[in-house]
C-alpha cells in the first residue's frame, strides 16, 4: 500500500472481462497519481461518458470512468452518472478520503466491517472479513452488507482507521436514471408494449461488452428464455465470432430441461444440458450455504441448481460471461402470490419492496453461485432505464391478468416470433419442481437429506432459544442455520432481516410456491 495512507492495505483478485491487459487493480492512473480504485463491476456507458465529457482514458477498462467522473464532478455526480453494476472503493490520498459505492440493486456484492475504534474493512464477501472479528483489540466489530444505491465518504485518520462523514442514498428502485440513457425518453413511442420490447432489447445489447465468451442460463421459463432469444438476436447484429452457448439443468426428465431444449432449438444456440442427482445435492449442500453466506430457506434451495451448473460451465466450456433472467419476478410481478394482492397499489409497493431487498435474496443467489466459479452474471431485467419505465406504467396494467403472472411482459412479446407460444405463456413453476424429476421434487430431496443428517425430532422451543432472530421453523431451516453459524457465528442479525416468504397467503410457514393455492405445476 502507498505509505501516504497509514495502517491500510488493499488487495484485489480480479476476474478479467474487459481490458484483460491494462485493467488490473488496484488501478492507478498517470493523470491522477494520488488516487486509487478497486471496483467490481461493469459500466456500460463508459464510452458515452468519455465522448460527453471529453475524458482521456489511459486504459480500455470500463471502470476507469469512475476516476474521471470523481475528479471532474465529485463523488455524488460520479455515482449518479454510472449506468451499470458496481461495488467500489475509491481512495483519494491527497484529501485523505475514502469513498464506497454500490449499484442501485446491489447486483455486485459489498460487505463492510466497522468497529468503535474506527476500523473499516470492505470486501465482496463476508468470509473475507470474518477473520478480522477475532483479531486486533477488544472492540466489537460488525459486518453487514453495504446498502445498494448508496455511497459513503470517510476521512482517513492520521493514526489509522476511518471516520464516516457522509452517507447518501443516490438511487431508489424505480427512480429515473440521472445519466444520459441509451434510448432517450423523448424517443419512446406512445405504445408501452413497443417500449418494453425496445428497452429490454437495449438492456441486453449494452451488456454485450466483454472480451470473454458470452452465454446464457436457460431454464425454459419465460424470463431466461426471453433474455436468451434477445441475446442471440443482438449477438448476430454485433457479429460476435461465436455461437451463443445456453445451459440448463435438471434431474433426469425435469420440466425445465424439456422446455429449455425446445427454446434452444427454436433460437439456435449451442445448448448444454446438465443432469444432477440426489447424491450431487447431498454433496454440495453445505458448500452452497457457505458460498451464499445466508441460511435463508428459499435462497438455499434455489441455489443448488445454479451452483452445479456454474461448476459445469467453468470446467467444461470457455464461456465466462452469463446472462440470466433474474429480476423479472420482482419488476414484473412474476411471483404467484401477486394474484392475491388486495389492489394494484399494494402490488406496486411490493414490487418496490422486493427490488429494495433483492440483494439479500435472489440477487445474492445469482451472484454467489456464479462468482464462486469465476463467472460473471449479467441481468438485463435490472437495467435502470427498463425498471424505471416498467414501474412507471399504470399499476393496474402490471398486475397478473386472467390468472397469468407477468401478463404485460408476455403481451409485449406476443406475436413477435421471439419464442414459441407455449414457452411465452408457460406457467411459473417453483424452482424445486422445475429442475426436479417427475418422481420427486428437489424440495423432497432436501428434506430427506436433512432427515438423515438430523434424525432427532425438530424442537421449536430449542430453536427459538438458540436462534431468537430468524428462528428456524422446520428441521430443514434449522440445518441450514447451523451450517451457516459454523462459518458466520452470530452474523444472521446483520445478514438476514427475515426469511423470504410470499405475501397475502395465510396459513403457510414454508416459502415454496407449491403451497400457494394458485400453483399450477403438477404435484409429485
TrEMBL record:
Gene3D superfamilies: Glutamine Phosphoribosylpyrophosphate, subunit 1, domain 1 (3.60.20.10), HUPs (3.40.50.620). Keywords: Amino-acid biosynthesis, Asparagine biosynthesis, ATP-binding, Ligase, Nucleotide-binding. Pathway: Amino-acid biosynthesis; L-asparagine biosynthesis; L-asparagine from L-aspartate (L-Gln route): step 1/1. Residues 1-157 form the Glutamine amidotransferase type-2 domain. ATP binds at residues 249, 324-325. CDD domains: Asn_synthase_B_C. This is Asparagine synthetase [glutamine-hydrolyzing]. It comes from Asbolus verrucosus. The lineage of its organism: Eukaryota, Metazoa, Ecdysozoa, Arthropoda, Hexapoda.
